[in-house]
Amino acid sequence: xxxxxxxxxxxxxxxxxxxxxxxxxxxxxxxxxxxxxxxxxxxxxxxxxxxxxxxxxxx
Length: 59
What we know:
Blueprint: E1 2-4, E2 8-13, E3 16-25, E4 28-36, H1 47-55
Antiparallel strand pairs: 1-2, 2-3, 3-4
């Protein structure tokens, strides 16, 4: 995960890459992913779990 100026986020997750934005509010950080490649991954890759955890919202 790379945090860039302008709240830009780049993610290399297993065999895929994604970009998006992040927001910091008080003690929380939120991620919103946009474009993501879906490269072929090994059967044991955890990309889907990682992305779900990264973008999960608590209410």
